[in-house]
Amino acid sequence: MKEGNDTFKQQFNNLETFKAKFKELYAVQELDDVKTDRLASMILKQEQFQDILLRTNTKYAMMDGIPHKQVQSSALALMMEVAELIDRLPWKTWKRYSRDEEIDVYQDLNIAEEVIDCLHFIFNIWLALGFNAKDLYIMFNVKNNRNRERQKEGC
Known about the structure:
- This protein is an all-alpha fold.
- The chain has one domain (6-153).
- It has 7 helices and no strands.
- Helix 3 (38-56) packs across helix 6.
- The radius of gyration is 19 Å and the shape is globular.
- The termini are far apart.
């Protein structure tokens, strides 16, 4: 367990407590409407955040209109977030981990947060390439089908 997380662990001892507190803290509204496209909503929020960064962050604004620089910057940040994710897992295949080091609900919440950080940078890359949620849905399904065919063929 990382230092400084004891308070977090005490406050959020299970996933339901975490979800409830997260919604309260960040005024997250439930999307119960079946017609709400959650993926499109997430990508739109990230696009709005990107607009804020372009207006308030000089280094970020210098990359505006240069997609390969935006992709490169976001890809590097994504790699760092993946490293943070891996750091939270018992990844050493040569080591025997004790039960104390096994992943608990608290760790799962930190892992979930790292995955969300990864999604932010994946969305940044997606937006820099000029794609939207519908494009992501279509391309994901095409690639998923291709992967399934490869598995059937043993490739």
